[in-house]
Amino acid sequence: MITKFITEVSTTFNPFLPRAKTARLFLSFLPPNARQTMKVDTKLLPRASRDPSLLQLKFKDGKQMKLDAEKLGIKGVVEEVDRHSRILSRQEELNGN
Fold first, then answer.
1. Are 53 and 40 in contact (CB under 8 A)?
2. What residues pair up with 57 in beta bridges, in sequence order?
3. What is the DSSP string of the chain?
4. pLDDT digits over 12-43, tens only?
5. Range of 85's domain?
6. pLDDT tens across 74-84, in order?
7. How big is the CA angle at 60 (ends 93 and 90), to the nearest 5 degrees?
8. The CATH number of the domain where 24 resides is what?
9. How many domains in the chain?
10. Are 72 and 23 in contact (CB under 8 A)?
11. Entry pTM
12. Are 82 and 2 in contact (CB under 8 A)?
């Protein structure tokens, strides 16, 4: 997963539900120095909560993504992040940075 262009990650999930697996896996895919290069905000819901798992991302170009972690699954989330990151990478190469 390309994390170079992500500036902010915000997750909300109930860690006790199996549906929160995507959000937990996404956080585990972030590099060890993620808190130094991006803002990471995690909100854990109480055990009795039935609220859906949400994943919100902000990129260097200002684009914001709100992803439904339960519906997409980890493969879908990684594909969406990589798709936009590849676009930003191409733009950076074309600009000569």
1. no
2. 9, 65
3. ---TTEEEEEEEE-TTSGGGHHHHHHHHHS-TTHHHHSEEEEEEPPTT--PPPEEEEEETTS-EEEEEHHHHHHHHHHHHHHHHHHHHHHHHHHHT-
4. 999 999 999 999 999 999 999 988 999 999 99
5. 6-94
6. 999 999 999 99
7. 20
8. 3.40.30.10
9. 1
10. no
11. 0.88
12. yes
